[in-house]
Amino acid sequence: MGCVARVWLVARCNAATGWRMRFAADSDSDLSRGYCACLVAALDGAKPEDVLAVDPADPDLAPLGAGITAARSRASTWHNVLVGMQKRARTAIAAREGRHPGKPFPSLVIARDGAVRAQGSYAEAQAMFLSPDESKISGLVNTLKEKKIGVVAHFYMDPEVQGILTAAKKQWPHIQISDSLIMADSAVKMAEAGCDYITVLGVDFMSENVRSILDQEGFNKVVVYRMSSEPIGCSLADAASSCEYTHFLREASRCYPSLHVIYINTSLETKAHAHELVPTITCTSSNVVPTILQAFAQIPDLNVWYGPDSYMGANIADLFQRMATMADEEIAKIHPDHNRKSISSLLPRLHYYQGGNCMVHDMFGHEVVGKIKEQYCDAFLTAHFEVPGEMFSLAMEAKRRAMGVVGSTQNILDFIKDHLMRALDRNVDDHLQFVLGTESGMITSIVAAVQELFDLYSSQERANIEVEIVFPVSSDAISKTSNGSHHVGSSMATNLDNLTIVPGVSSGEGCSIHGGCASCPYMKMNTLGSLLKICHQLPDKNNKLSVYQANRFNFKTPLGKSVAEVGCEPILHMRHFQETKRLPHKLVHQVVHGSGDEPL
Prior knowledge:
The chain has 600 residues and is α/β, with parallel strands linked by helices. α19 (443-456) links the parallel β15 and β16. It is globular and about 80 Å long.
C-alpha cells in the first residue's frame, strides 16, 4: 500500500450480498489496522456507487486522519486503502451490469527465480530479446576487450541491443546503459581506465556531448563513434534550433535578469548559440526542478526560461503551482531555501517554450489515464517528466500517497529497485505492480535490475515475490504544432485555441505509439550490426570510419567564439551544480552582469 506497513484487503459484492460491498481488512501494523477498521466500519454494506463517491481529500475526514491536513503517512494509509476499496467497487459495478471490467494493459512479470512471462502480444515483443544469443555476447565482449572499446548507450535502445549489452557488461565493465546525464561522465571514466575508443548508441546530441566532455577532460585522443554515417536526429533537438525558439530566446534576452535552462536533449551548436543570447545552463529530467529552484533562490528577481520540451515545461509549472499550496515544512524538504511565499512569487517569472517541431505521441493521453484510474489505481505509478499533463497529474497524486514517482528514467529505475528491496527485506509473499509511464525501451534495464536483486537475496528463505511491469500502451497518437511561449499566469484557454491537432504520428519521424523513443526511427539506427561493424574495423588506419566520428565543432559562433567551448559551458555549469548544489559564480555573474553583446 505504499508504506512500510502491509495491508490486506478483501471485498465481496454479488447477488448474495444484495450488491452491497462487504469488506474485510487487516495489517501487520497496529496503527494501520485501526485505520482499516475505521474504513471498513464506514463502508462495509455500502452500495458500490457510495464507495466511489468518497473523496479522500474531504476535510471532514481529517479528524480520522484521512484528510489533506493529516500527517502524510497517515493520509497515505487511508488514501491507499480507500483507493483499493474503490477499485473493487468499480469491478462490482461491472459485474452487476454484466460487463467485463476491461482488458488489461500488456505486461511483463518477473518471478522470484528470474523467469519472465509476457502477458499480451506487445509484452511478448518486448521480451523476445531478454535472453540474448550467447555467441553474440562473447563475440562482442572479445572485440571490446581486444581493442579497448567503451560503450555508452541510452536506456531507449532497441530491446535486442539492450539485451546484448546488458549481458556483455557482466564480462566487460566498460559498458554503460543510462540516461543522458550519465553517458558523458561514464565515457570519461572509461577513458581514464584506458579505453582508446568510445562508441555512443543514441542520437547525435548525445555523441556530441560525449565528445565535448572528453575534450574538456583532456582526452582529445580518445575517438568517439556514432552508429550511422547519416545524421541521427531528434525532433525535440530540432525544435530548439528553430526560428521560433530563437525568438523565444530573444524575448528572454530583453527581460533582465534572465537564465535559460535548456534540456540536455539538444545539440551542442544550439547550446552555444543560446548561451550567447541568454546565460544558459543545461538540465536533465532528474535535475531540472532543483536547478530551477536553486536559480530562483540564488538570484533575486530572476526570470527563468525553460525549453524546448513543452510538456516538461508545463509539468514543471504544474509542480510549482502544487508546491504553492503546500506547508512550508513540505516545501523545505524539496528545497531548503523556499517556502510558500517564495514559490508563489516565482510563478509569474517562470516561462517555458510552448511549441516547435516536437512530434509527441499521445502514449499517456486521456484514454490511457482513464484506464489507469479504473484498473491500476492501487498499483505503483511511474512517470517521466516529459509525459502529457494528465498523466503527470495522476503520477503526482500517486507520489503524494507514496505510490508513485515522477522524474527521469534513472529515478524510475531506482524507485522500482527501492520498493523491491523493501519487499525482499520483509520476505513475505507479494506482487509488486508498476505502471511504466515512460518509453518501453528501458524495460531491459528494469528486468536486469530486478533479476540482480533477486539473485542478491537468493540465500534467504524465499517468499513468493513477483514484479509486474505494465505497459500503458495507447491505441492512437497525436502530433502537435504551435509556436510561442507560455508563462504560468496566462490563460490556458487562449493557448489551447491556437493548437493544431493532427491525428496519428507524422510519417518518417518523431515518436511512435508502439513504445516512444524505443521505436523511434532515429533510435533504431543504433543497431547491433552497426556497433559490430565499427568495432571490427578499429583501429581505423584507412580512415574509412571518419563519417561515423562524433562531431568536433571547429567553427565559430555569431560572436566569433568556438562553438565547442561555448556549447560545452552550459553542460559544465550543470556538472558544477550536480557537485555543489549551487549555480557556479561564473554563471551567476553572466546572469547579473550580462554574458556579452548580442550579435547584430
